[in-house]
Specification:
Structural class: alpha+beta
Radius of gyration: 17 Å
Number of helices: 2
Distance between the termini: 21 Å
Largest sheet: 4 strands, antiparallel
Number of strands: 4
Order of helices and strands: HEEEEH
Number of domains: 2
Strand order of the largest sheet: 1-2-3-4
Strand content: 15-25%
Helix content: 25-40%
Amino acid sequence: MDEPESDNTPEDEADVRERMDGLAAKLVAQGLHSTVQVVRRECYIAATLHRPGHKNIDLVIDADGYTELRYWADLAASPEQTVSVILRALAAITGTELSQSERPPPT
């Protein structure tokens, strides 16, 4: 995966922590349990959406913007349903649906 291009100057640790604390607070305001963690001077957010009767949805957001979204797929769903959920999530993240030319060929 390509790293995003940025012309921003590096943030100092205090600025990074302030930005990450603000982001975590916004996630908490939306109902996610969020904490800012610092491991070996690297800052990241661990956030979880708890939904009664459902498995958790987890987010990990690094200080450099790398974000992981982890959820449990419904094992009773058909492959088409599962792919549909994934494509909708990708469309929400990218702001656009994948065009036919961007989709890998079926295997």
